[in-house]
Amino acid sequence: MNDIKNLVNESLIKAKQEQAKREKYISIIKYISSIILPTLIVFIILNVFIGIATIKGSSMEKGLHENDIILFNRLDKTIDRFDIIVAKKIDQNMYIIKRVIGLPNDTIDIKDGYVFVNNTQIDESSYTENGTTYLQDISFPITLSDDEYFLLGDNREVSLDSRNSETGLINKKNIFGKILFVFRGLK
User: Fold this and answer.
1) CA of 30: how far to CAs of 37, 43, 176, in Å?
2) pLDDT tens, residue order, the chain (187 aa)
3) Is 102:161 a contact under the CB 8 Å cutoff?
4) Is 97 within 8 Å of 55 (Cβ atoms)?
5) CA–CA separation, 167 vs 151, rounded Å?
6) Predicted TM-score (pTM) of this structure
7) Beta strand pairing call for 95-102 and 120-121
8) Strand order in the sheet with 120-121
9) Could you give the CA distance from residue 83 to residue 86 in angstroms, rounded to a whole number?
10) Backbone angles phi, psi at 82, to 5 degrees
11) Which residues pair with 86 in a beta bridge?
């Protein structure tokens, strides 16, 4: 009889030990999941849906300033005139943040400091630093192809944008997204 009691007690002790091990294992899995799952979700959001960039330089001043942090929508590829976008320079791994002035098939001209789109002068006073657009090393007028965009920085005096062959026209496949939100940086 004692042997049976001892055997039952040993079985109960082993069962309790195994239960304790399982509970410890489950709590470790829950703890790890509580860290990894949210991290994975944030990673997916920031790499698939939303992007983050920081403004470097003064080329987008009046509206965007150095060290401003921007969130941009990676999924919305409908680009409208005057949207501010994040794009990649031609043949470079450098990102730029500029305003869309010319859409596919538009004709862009710069005359006497003013920008014309399809022979109509556009009013840029609300976002340009001084309202004057200077020529750089690209000849005007130019007509964009089906997938090309013409981008300008708001601070035209210092911006290297589509007026310059170093940046050039931006192909749709090199557009990463439109700006959603701006967090003001430290000055």
Assistant:
1) 10, 20, 36
2) 566 666 666 777 777 788 888 888 888 888 888 888 888 888 888 878 899 999 998 888 888 999 999 999 999 889 999 999 999 887 677 789 999 999 999 999 999 889 999 999 998 888 886 767 777 888 899 999 999 999 999 988 888 889 988 888 999 999 999 999 999 876 5
3) no
4) yes
5) 9
6) 0.79
7) unpaired
8) 120-121, 114-117, 107-111, 142-143
9) 10
10) 80, 0
11) 97, 177
Closest among 49, 144, 165, 138 to 100, alpha carbons compared: 144
So where are the chain's domains? 1-53, 55-183
Query: How is residue 74 annotated by DSSP?
Result: S
CATH topology of domain 55-183: Umud Fragment, subunit A (2.10.109)
* Residue 182 and residue 69 in contact, taking contact as beta carbons nearer than 8 Å: yes
Which amino acid, one-letter code, is at 39?
A: T
